[in-house]
Amino acid sequence: MSYSTILFDIADGVAIITLNRPDRLNAFTAEMHGELRDALAKVADTKSGCRALLITGAGRGFCAGQDLTQRQMSDDKAIDLGETIDKQFNPLIRAVRSLALPVIGAVNGVAAGAGMSLALACDITFAARSATFLQAFAKLGLVPDSGSTYFLPRLAGDARARGLAMLAERISAEQAENWGLIWKVLDDDKMMGEAIALARHLATQPTKGLAMIKHALDQSSTNTLDQQLDLERDLQRTLGHTADYREGVAAFLAKRPAKFTGR
Ligand code: T3D
Q1: Is residue 145 within 6 Å of ligand 1 at its C-beta?
Q2: What is the pLDDT of residues 4-35, one digit of tens each?
Q3: Which of 37, 50, 74, 226 is deepest in the core (most CB within 10 A)?
Q4: C-beta 140 within 6 A of ligand 1
Q5: Which 3-state string (H, E, C) describes the chain?
Q6: Which ligand 1 atom lies nearest to the CA of residue 68?
């Protein structure tokens, strides 16, 4: 499949998806969703050799959420937003969250609506100092979607989640970092370089272990402590049989850097 709304590249175990509709601040269209589904399926395919994914945006925006020019409607013809969420936005967030490898968000500019949700869905999210975040949904009479009602209270706490969602005020990257919504703010000219360097580093790390860290942390929001202890035991048992665990121990004992293969 060739892409016209995203750029997609895989090199040295690192996949990079760049949302590429800069004149619309990379707002989502049905076409972009289709291309993202295709690219994410390639990343998930073990034959691709991907061991880390970076998601960013072209131009001055990260992503402005749904392209509202595709939502103009007449009184007698309402769009079924349940269907667009079901077929486009939910599969996107599920695909990103279920990848068995680390996903790095590189928020180069404004992240609004479902664009902010996508940034929150990444495992480690950087933002350029000039970037901003906006839960735009309330301004349209909508509820935050694409996982924002899940991520916001867990990351920032209930009071901030309610303020962000109901007031729809744009916040700075620094505020997003202070509130725990993202990992780190970096100067604009350094952000992409550091995000790519981190993706390259993570692509050399024990991929199965990282995937199971993701899984364990995801489960922790609904599990009891007893369930979580059992899950940690089961994951550790599985990881104890991996080549990367053997290599990690051998490298430590030999006082040399480990060479992880992701197996
Ligand atoms: O619909 C469903 O299926 C349900 C799911 C919904 C998920 C959602 O994401 S709902 C939320 C949709 N997004 C928004 O409401 C955000 C709308 N955009 C904005 O509020 C602002 O553009 C920003 C705060 C993101 C950025 O502001 P600013 O001042 O930096 O840029 P701008 O001048 O507003 O935008 C630049 C251009 O991008 C402009 O076009 P122009 O005037 O140069 O021709 C603007 O219209 C366009 N643009 C920005 N966001 C969107 C967009 N065009 C279409 N859709 C957009 N979402």
Answers
A1: yes
A2: 999 999 999 999 999 999 999 999 999 999 99
A3: 50
A4: yes
A5: CCCCCEEEEEECCEEEEEECCHHHCCCECHHHHHHHHHHHHHHHCHHHCCCEEEEEECCCEEECCECHHHHCCCCCCCCCHHHHHHHHHHHHHHHHHHCCCCEEEEECCEEECHHHHHHHHCCEEEEECCCEEECHHHHHCCCCCCCHHHHHHHHHCHHHHHHHHHHCCCEEHHHHHHCCCCCEEECHHHHHHHHHHHHHHHCCCCHHHHHHHHHHHHHHCCCCHHHHHHHHHHHHHHHCCCHHHHHHHHHHHCCCCCCCCCC
A6: 55
